[in-house]
Design brief:
The structure holds two protein chains of two kinds. Chain A is an alpha+beta fold. Chain A has five helices and eight strands, in the order βααββαββαββαβ. In chain A, strand 2 and strand 3 form a beta hairpin. The chains are: A alpha+beta, B alpha/beta.
């Protein structure tokens, strides 16, 4: 299955992926209208160390601990993609408590959201990958689960 | 064709079904469910009374789940005895369910102490099941005075969800602070303050001496050890839970407070597995054997039990106590064991505590600050050596950037 991977040596730390993610999931047509002057709630974020930066989004783990840990039965894995039913989520943050990658965070409404690979939004493929100026984020197959 | 029987129909039972079916598509699965409902999310009963969910959304799985999994459901039935020689489960109605492999996922029940005068209190409730919540909803109105005995998670979530529905709420606990299982006095004060801001009163460091009636008004009252008298209309008992371990312990199964299981979820009895709140297992953060009742553990144990019951191979050896809970928007997270050296960072609205010992992160408390806490949790569960990460960086914020380049490559460079 194709997943999002990062090449940290190529990441500029420009945060464009965060903006492209927030826009792709905004449901709006105009990026400036969607994002300008507002706090953004992307499903990908840049981690920065002293000399490194890289983007982190859901790993779509083979045995996702968030799926088993969700107290609302709101997170599931379908066709390899870990998805959240935001209608069921009660914002208890248990998924934040367990995700080893720090890949889940609440959206503007306080309800949890996560990367679902842009498969359900207007982008249709990961917007973070499409918009990365340095190909530091890629969408590809690397080893398949059984 | 293998015959699987599961006693219980909660979180661990559902995950056990999924574990079995990940290995064996054919075997016959029979589920003995004490409650008459399909599995639902018990921790959501307080959200139900706040209208933040409803009975449909709080279902743990979709309506087609049991059919798709090929389960025979025995709703409203209770297992009373296991015959380990003949490998049969006897139900309350006398019928027998033969099994090849059994999983006991019987959960826990609320502990109700003997309290003088309790029998005469008409409106008294526990707060652990859907039926409890629906009955409590019927019993309260905007004029109700509610007394909640127990300032643990269940008592406080009950208080939170009733805050807008009733006139007064008082929470009483023998401990001198709220959430005594997870928090010390100082950390608990943040949570208590938030609850008090929403009109909830506390009688802490005190306990009920007896229940009686006010002679003039005829109203219920609780007389506390301190002499304080608390009038009330509705009583909620949320003192604690006891593991439903007797089915296995009655037939010689090992265990102290729960059913002892190993990392494959095997009990000490051949072909009997157990999972969830009825079990005791090893806490990887300290090595002690204990009850590790929380929903994530129940789910992971159930799944591992199911895989192994069906002849597959799975282990769950990373259980710790962990908890994430919110009250009126204030989130508290705790994990592991609070031993060793303490790093603390406090503000007026938040606390971060990290406990380290022998080159390991042992536990943490995070109140009002929760970003990426799972990175800390995974360090406890995986026993990540602190010397392998930039822990000074990690103290400021949970970040995978503090891991070594090799560790980051394993985390982000391939399938995990």
């Amino acid at each position: 299955m194709k997943r999002v991977y990062v090449n940290e040596e190529w990441c500029l730390g420009c945060h464009l992926c965060e903006y492209n993610c927030a826009f792709a999931n905004s449901g709006m047509q105009d990026m400036a209208l969607a994002l300008k002057g507002k706090p953004i709630y992307p499903r990908i974020h840049i981690e920065e160390g002293e000399k490194i930066s890289y983007a982190v989004s859901c790993r779509h783990c083979e045995d996702p601990i968030c799926v088993r840990s969700c107290i609302a039965g709101a997170i599931s894995k379908e066709g390899g993609v870990v998805k959240i039913d935001r209608d069921k989520c009660v914002s208890c943050f248990t998924c934040i408590l367990v995700c080893p990658y720090g890949a889940l965070a609440p959206g503007e409404d306080g309800v949890m959201q996560k990367c679902e690979l842009c498969l359900q939004n207007s982008c249709g493929e990961p917007a973070c990958v499409k918009g990365c100026p340095n190909r530091a984020i890629v969408y590809e197959e690397r080893g398949e689960e059984a | 064709m293998r015959r699987y029987v599961i006693i219980g129909n909660g979180i661990s039972a559902v995950n056990c079904i999924e574990g079995i079916r990940s290995v064996d598509a054919e075997g016959r699965i029979t589920v003995i469910s004490g409650e008459k409902h399909p599995a639902y999310c018990r921790p959501l009963i307080s959200y139900l009374l706040e209208d933040r969910t409803d009975q449909k959304r709080m279902q743990y799985r979709d309506p087609g789940f049991y059919d798709r999994m090929g389960c025979e459901m025995l709703y409203g039935r209770k297992a009373v005895r296991i015959d380990k020689e003949d490998k049969k489960v006897e139900l309350y109605d006398g019928t027998l369910q033969p099994y090849d492999v059994l999983c006991v996922a019987a959960g826990s029940h609320p502990f109700v102490p003997r309290l003088n005068g309790l029998d005469a209190v008409e409106k008294k409730f526990s707060f652990t099941t859907l039926d409890d919540a629906l009955a409590l909803e019927q019993a309260v109105d905007k004029d109700s005075k509610v007394l909640i005995v127990g300032a643990g998670m269940i008592g406080l979530k009950c208080a939170e969800c009733l805050a807008e529905r009733v006139s007064e709420i008082t929470v009483c606990d023998l401990a001198d602070h709220v959430l005594p299982t997870f928090l010390d006095f100082e950390c608990a004060s943040y949570v208590q303050k938030r609850l008090e801001e929403h009109g909830i009163s506390f009688a802490l460091g005190d306990s009920v001496e007896h229940f009686g009636k006010d002679p003039s008004s005829g109203k219920n009252e609780a007389v506390l050890k301190s002499g304080t008298v608390l009038p009330f209309d509705v009583l909620v008992l949320a003192i604690g839970a006891r593991a439903n371990a007797s089915l296995v312990k009655d037939i010689g199964g090992a265990g102290e407070r729960g059913i002892a299981v190993d990392e494959c979820m095997r009990t000490s009895i051949q072909d009997i597995y157990a999972a969830g709140d009825c079990t005791e297992s090893t806490d990887v953060s300290c090595g002690d054997r204990k009850l590790l009742s929380n929903l994530p553990n129940a789910a992971m144990q159930g799944y591992v039990a199911g895989v192994n019951m069906a002849g597959g191979s799975a282990v769950f050896d990373k259980a710790i106590m962990m908890n994430s809970i919110s009250f009126f928007g204030l989130h508290s997270m705790t994990a592991g064991t609070y031993t060793g050296e303490l790093f603390e960072e406090k503000t007026d609205t938040s606390v971060k505590r990290l406990y380290t010992e022998n080159d390991l992160l042992k536990g943490f408390v995070l109140i009002g600050t929760s970003d990426r806490a799972g990175i800390y949790t995974s360090m406890i569960r995986n026993r990540t050596p602190l010397s392998s990460v930039d822990f000074e960086m990690m103290k400021k914020a949970a970040t995978t950037a503090a891991f070594s380049a090799g560790a980051r490559e394993r985390m982000f460079g391939g399938t995990v």
